[in-house]
Amino acid sequence: MQLQQRHIDALDRAETLMFHSDFCPYLELKELLAENTSQARSQFRYLFTDYYGMNTAGLTNDFKDRYFEILFGDDVFSNGEPNFQPILTTLSLIPNRKGFSTLQCSFVSKLVGMRRESSPIYDSHVSKFFGERVPSPSRSQESRILWFVDFLKRVAQDYTSWAHDERVCAILRRFKKCDERLAHCDTIRLMDFLVWNVGNRELL
After folding, report:
1. pLDDT digits (tens, 9 = 90+) for 83-92
2. 82 has which bridge partners?
3. CB neighbours of 79 closer than 8 A, spacing ≥ 6?
4. Which residue range forms the structural domain that includes residue 47?
5. Is there a domain that residue 175 lies in?
6. Is residue 204 part of a domain?
7. 60 pLDDT band (50/70/90 cuts)?
8. 3-state secondary structure the chain
9. 65, 185, 195: which is closest to 123 by C-alpha?
10. What share of the chain in percent tops pLDDT 90?
11. pLDDT (tens digit, 9 = 90+) per residue, 108-126?
């Protein structure tokens, strides 16, 4: 996607309106995941669930148990690539609280993004920023997953490209000064925070 000045202005404004509570939980999650102890994993699950709103998404405990089993496990990647399709398919077999099977693209992007910081996050704010959304359930599940995987690849490419734009570079440099730990985050994750805040504050 080609950035327009309105996008730059929105990203710039989003950075000035960023609270520590918008990104500090993620930084704490990174530290907890690296500890790899039962206590750290318990704390990670509690914080992740709260930060990403899993308790308000109509998900069952069975879903969350399987979700974190996958997140902490060895099957997130295969041959160096995220296993989006099998993860999405596996989790779609677990009905939500209303008894429906759903494709949890946003939560799966967060699962993979937690294990690989260069993998962008998908949510309604990102969807709106790019003017695209996951095809409706009337389409086959396979085609919806293929769209999702392709979209994330394009988002990653765009974020990387935008980071070479001096206008965006200036915003990222300013953002990194908010917390020294942000300097160690992948550019794609920093862009995630900014684009999320654009949507959260309805700056476009």
Report:
1. 999 999 999 9
2. 77
3. none
4. 5-198
5. yes
6. no
7. very high
8. CCCCHHHHHHHHHHHHCCCHHHHHHHHHHHHHHHHCCHHHHHHHHHHHHHHCCHHHCCCCHHHHHHHHHHHHCCCCEECCEECHHHHHHHHHCCCCCCCCCCCCHHHHHHHHHHHCCCCCCCCHHHHHHHCCCCCCCCCCHHHHHHHHHHHHHHHHHHHHHHCCCHHHHHHHHHHHCCCHHHHHCCHHHHHHHHHHHHHHCCCC
9. 195
10. 96
11. 999 999 999 999 999 999 9
Q: What is the pLDDT of residues 178-190, one digit of tens each?
A: 999 999 999 999 9
Whether residue 63 is contained in a domain is answered as yes
Residue 18 token pair: 């960023």
The pTM of this model reads 0.95
Q: Give the Å distances, CA to CA, from 44 to 28, 65, 74, 123, 152.
A: 8, 13, 17, 21, 25
